Amino acid sequence: MTLFSRTMSLPPTGLLNAGLFQMAWLGFVAGAGAGQAWWGLPALVGLMALSVYQQRWRADFSWVLVALVYGAWLEWIWIHWQVLDYGSNSAPWWILALWMSLALTLNHSLHWLRRQPWLAAALGALTAPLSYGAGEAFGAVTIGDGMIWISLAWGLTFLLIFSLQRSSRFKLQEVRL
Question: Fewer beta carbons within 10 angstroms: which end of the chain, N or C?
Answer without folding.
Answer: N
